[in-house]
Amino acid sequence: MADPLKPDTAVPVVIDRRRFLSWVVASPALMVAVRLDSSFAQTGPVETESASFNLYIAIQTDGRVVATLPRTEIGQGITTAVAMLVAEELDTLLDSVDVRTADADPRWLIQLTGLSSTMRYLAGPVRAAAASARARLVTAAAHRWQLLASRLTTARGEVLAPDGRRAGYGELARDAASVLLPEVSPLPKEVAEYTLVGQPTGRIDARDIVTGKARYALDLSIPGALPTVVARPPTLRGSVVSHDASAALSMPGVVGVVPLPTGVAVSAQSFAQALAARDALRVTWAPGPASHLSDADIEARLRDGMGSRPLPPLFTARTLEARFDFPYLAHAPMETQSCVARVTSDHAELWLGAQDPKFAQREVAEALGWALTPQRVTVHTTRAGGGFGRRFFNEPAVEAALVSRALGRPVKLMWTRNDDMRQGRYRPASHHRILAYLGSGGSILGWHHRSVIPTVEFPHGFGDLLTSLVGTVLPGVTSQTFFALSQKVPYRFGLVTQQLREVPIPIPTASFRSVYSSQVTVANELFVDQVARELGRDAVELRRAHLSSKRLEAVLDTVVREGQWGRALPSGVAQGVAVHEEWDSAIAHLVEVDVSGAEPRVLRVVIAADVGLPINPRGIEAQLQGATIDALSTTLSAGLHIDAGAVREGSFADYRWLRMKHMPATIDVHLVRSDDRVGGVGELGYPTAAAALGNALARGTGTLPTRFPILEAGA
User: Fold this and answer.
1) For strand 377-381 and strand 348-352, is the pairing parallel, antiparallel, or unpaired?
2) What does the buried/exposed string (b/e) look like for 381-412 if buried means 16 or more CB atoms within 10 Å of the residue's CB?
3) Which of 122, 526, 561, 568 has the fewest Cβ atoms within 10 Å of its own Cβ atom?
């Protein structure tokens, strides 16, 4: 079968009602490419060498279906959701569909996995490609049997004739590849016709994951790849002044020591040998640019950046104010950063779980001095064990490429958990001031929220070269743009303003699950409850009275009903709610917490979400539950501390993520469906879980939490 990233020719374009362009790519079997296009003007053959593809679907001669996507499986379950859509539109079995991630390639429109965008952007193209393939398979069977295509049906990977004849997709694939114009509709099904999509379905890769068959970067067997680790500076972005590798080089199994801009790498025959030799290095370090900063200094800078209070609107009778402080957070994915690299004099080949493989390709090319010829770098995207924004940055790829070139050998470079915690990238700390302007009679005349946050780095942009260049050259422009586009107050609160003030602090940052909403929305929802208390109103009633979104009203009503808001509770037990709308989806959380013990304990969580068409309800449930655990952890106990430019926490031993014993007895997820659009899920669940927990704590203790995490180590 032809390489799906290097198609030869294409047949005339087929345009469907969902504004996707699809065409058949020349190959030994049936392969359909599709891309999103905003114009119907294009007709005739397409130049596939310059086309920006969204995806490919290939029907192989053995009947298996392969979907190739420009997105990365990082645990969010896109392989299952895509396979379900393909199986649905093709009328084939789910277990006959394989989903693969494409290598980095400029012909893909966007390869960025983030912003809860994968299914929002790819569900339509997936449906279009699969429907187009099915139409061609039916047409091929009609030609073979000399029947009208309209009389044929499909089921379980076969085309069926009224007289009982049947042909499997595999045996029709070659003939279908030569069909220029299908004789039945190539349009996707109506949603009402779906029988698989929308049904709770187990992950197609679950068995591979639990049995160890699933392969991550460090699992790959690249001949001769040397296990490699890096000695890193004690302070953030410190640098090497000098090093003595004599002791390390004399140790068993050690192959080489390579100085890097980020530290000193050691390669050996095993990771145990490499780690031991790394500890034997003698390195003199120059302190990093944040070495004069600790938590108190950072907090002072953030507060100093707040500026003066704005004037209240006319007719304001009373102004309520609250301030909130959030810490730096590590992404802490279960799989730490890693990369396998093989570099020769004129080519580099890398394997890693990147959230933007094209950005990885450009970064490695630049590091190797090939910035003008990034095509000399091949990036194979592997599955990854979590991302949350951390894998937009490709330090292990750059390091592995430099070490491989220096040693003339392939290398398998691993970041330890300590590396990732103490020399990684972080969600920035932030300080917030919110003002609510009240009129006579308790009306809300205005809402002003000013956030002071160190610049979130977006050098990868939004997946394309232009925004990547802007994110690199003008990082403040990108962050301000993203803030303005993503941050909305979903209430009719009169004159509403939200501002981002950026403070330069030399600590590396990255987008974190929910990006700005993980702080801004949380603070807003906490303060909504505080305003309700000041006005003597029920928190749910006040929200209902001011919500500007019917979808939010529906999810709020659902958690109130399912969580039995307002019922009599045992002494020391309280409830909190919060709502949020983003990524074309809406969500509400109700959290029930017991504050009677030495530390708060979450008893129950109820979630209601409107994500439009729920492709796989079980996958959505898992995503929302995972985001909830992240939020509960970082609200209660998990946060980073900076001591003289060094990160104090080094592992899950002191980065206090919640353990299984801390989990609520139930996390119930209810899906509310207002329409058939496909909304985002991966980042949706964090803000409302954190805010609902904070609101429950405020109701239970009588004190609004304003500093996070609430339970500091040793408290």
Assistant:
1) parallel
2) bbbbbbbbbbbbbbbbbbbbbbbbbbbebbbb
3) 568
Query: Tokens 């699950």 label which residue?
Result: 513
Judge whether 40 and 66 are in contact, CB under 8 Å.
no
- What's the CA gap between 184 and 138, in Å, rounded? 8
Rg (CA), the chain: 27
Tokens 């003002």 -> residue: 435
Identity (one letter) of the amino acid at 424? G
Please list, residue by residue across 498-507, b when 16 or more beta carbons sit within 10 angstroms of its beta carbon and e when fewer do.
bbbebbebeb
> 352 with 217: CB under 8 angstroms?
yes
- CA 485, CA 547: separation in Å to the nearest integer? 19
CA distance 672 to 555: 7
What is the tens place of the pLDDT at every residue in 612-669? 999 999 999 999 999 999 999 999 999 999 999 999 999 999 999 999 999 999 999 9
Q: Which long-range contacts (CB under 8 A, 24 or more apart) does 545-551 make?
A: 546/444, 546/491, 546/492, 546/493, 547/490, 547/491, 547/492, 547/579, 548/490, 548/491, 548/492, 549/490, 549/581, 549/586, 550/674, 551/581, 551/586, 551/610, 551/672, 551/674
Does the reported pTM lie above 0.85?
Answer: yes
Q: How far apart are CA 488 and CA 496, in angstroms?
A: 9
Instruction: Quote the tokens at residue 380.
Output: 């194979």
pLDDT of residue 4: 36
In angstroms, the CA 623 to CA 616 distance is 11
pLDDT in tens, 28-84: 789 998 866 533 222 222 333 334 567 899 999 999 999 999 999 999 999 999 999
Q: Report how far residue 684's alpha carbon sits from residue 430's, in angstroms, rounded to the nearest whole number.
A: 20
To which H or E segment does residue 626 belong?
A: helix 617-636
Which of 553, 231, 257 minimizes the C-alpha distance to 423?
231
Phi, psi of 339, deg, nearest 5: -165, 145
Supply the pLDDT for residue 1.
34
Amino acid at 328: Y
Taking the C-alpha atoms of residue 166 and residue 162, their distance in angstroms, rounded to an integer, is 9
First CA to last CA distance, the chain: 62
| Residue whose tokens read 């187990």 | 202
Alpha-carbon distances of 7 from 48, 299, 607, 681, rounded to whole Å: 7, 55, 45, 33
